[in-house]
Amino acid sequence: MFSATLINALIDAARKNAIEPARLLALVEVETSGKTFEQDGRTPALLYERHVAWRQAGKVSARLRAAFAAVGLAIPKWSRSTQYKDQGTSAGRLAVIAKARAIDEEVANQSASWGVGQTMGFLYPELGFDSACAMVDHMTGNVAGQIECMIAELKNKRLIGPLNAGDWKTVARIYNGPGYAANRYDTRLADADKRWSRKLSAGIDAHAAPAMSVDDIRALQRTLRSLGYVSVGNPDGSFGTKTVGALSQFQAHEGLPVTGRYDEATYQAMKIAQPIAQPQERARATADDLANAGSKTIKAANAGGLIAKVKGVVGGALISGGVASHEGLLDAAQSGIDKATQAKGIWESFCDLAGPLFGHPMAIVAGVILIASGTAIYFVVRAIKAHRVADHNSGVHAGVWE
After folding, report:
1. CA-based, 20 to 30 A from 118: which of 81, 227, 348, 354?
2. Is the Cα torsion angle 351, 352, 354, 360 positive or negative in sign?
3. pLDDT tier at 66 (50, 70, 90 boundaries)?
4. pLDDT (tens digit, 9 = 90+) per residue, 119-162?
């Protein structure tokens, strides 16, 4: 998601502060993949830390900590299973920080990491701010402010030397915490550094996007999909490797220089381009082909089809048994009437009459219900499989999580 603007800003900041540009770019890639803002376009990229909120709220008062904990926004220690359970999307992260701010804005801002460098809010004093709120305000809608805070943190933690030396274990331990190895921060930093070094040496920023908004990138991705370049994947607004690859495919097909960039020539060609045909193996694929390839939708549909068959078999067995048990039903009813005429009590006579009539018929009713529901499931499953195969044949799901 690195835009050309962000790359240039990071390179400029690195040079001004005697940092190897590739090393700073690698750090940002591992922290945020170049994401600067949440989906509202202003809030700095964030991640709320519940265990930090427990600590920071507790510094204010036990009552405030209890208020955060009562709504699940503070926990005593870091927990992989609950820490980020509701922060998988930008909307989720914005909702969480808004909920926390409604309790106490300062503590909420202290308890999250912010911006391209994921600077923790509680670091505000050492970065020269009067409060976490002031620090976050400085980053809001301001990429330069985010970079300034990241550089200030690196300086205060004396990490510029280890960063330039490629001492990734030291950088990861101090910048990310003692548990860095569990998330492979050091190896990921080293790997990102190698890629950025190659890109900068070659003078090519292969993942650099033009100065486009998230909505602009989504529109481009939707256009690529409509033209048949479905490897672009979901229109997620991220100018990543899939978008670069799909653009390169388009440029090669249209006889343009293959750069992976959305330049003016590509824009003009895209306005008049015709959709490309999907590969024959995709167009001819069947439901069995998709199942063998691991399609979760087809596998789930097949499981549903099996359930439909089981319901039909069980329902048929119930009906057959129920009907067989009613041979001589009239004889049983007549016997009940005879008993009634023999001065038996009204209740006993009713039981004698109703027993044969309403005992076994319930099995028949159950059988009918099972067969009806099994039949309904069968037709729904068949429709799902047909739609899924049609979508695959047309390329709708190519490059998308299936």
Report:
1. 81
2. positive
3. very high
4. 999 999 999 999 999 999 999 999 999 999 999 999 999 999 99
What pLDDT sits at residue 360?
56
The model's pTM: 0.58
Helical spans, DSSP H, in 326-396:
329-341, 346-358, 361-394
Beta bridge partners of 44: 37
**Which of 172-180's residues contact partners 24+ apart within 8 Å by CB, and which partners?**
175/27, 179/78
First to last CA, the chain: 23
CB 27 within 8 A of CB 185: no
**What does the alpha-carbon distance between residue 235 and residue 217 come to, in Å, rounded to a whole number?**
8
Instruction: Report pLDDT for 94.
Output: 97
When pLDDT is cut at 50, 70 and 90, the band that residue 105 belongs to is very high
If 0-12 CB within 10 Å is exposed, 13-18 middle and 19+ buried, where does residue 53 land? buried
pLDDT digits (tens, 9 = 90+) for 16-33: 999 999 999 999 999 999
Q: Which two tokens stand for residue 323?
A: 């009907």
Which of 246, 244, 236, 230 has the alpha carbon at shortest distance from 392?
A: 230
Alpha helices, H only, 275-345: 280-283, 287-292, 296-325, 329-341
The whole-angstrom separation of Cα 370 and Cα 266 is 58
Element of type H or E holding 113:
strand 112-114
* Token reading at 138: 């400085």
pLDDT value at 350 more than 80: no
Q: Angle at CA 74, nearest 5°, toward 71 and 75?
A: 120
Of the listed ranges 69-83, 92-106, 279-293, the least confidently predicted one is 279-293
Q: 208: which 2 tokens?
A: 């650099």
CB contact set of 194 (below 8 Å; sequence gap of 6+): none
Read off the DSSP letter of residue 182.
G
Q: Residue 402: is its pLDDT beyond 50?
A: no
216 CB-side CA count, 13 A: 11
Asked if 65 contacts 55 with a C-beta cutoff of 8 angstroms, the reply is no
Q: Which one, of 259, 240, 239, lies nearest residue 249 by Cα?
A: 259
> Would you say residue 190 has pLDDT above 80?
yes
* 8 A C-beta contact, residue 370 and residue 254: no
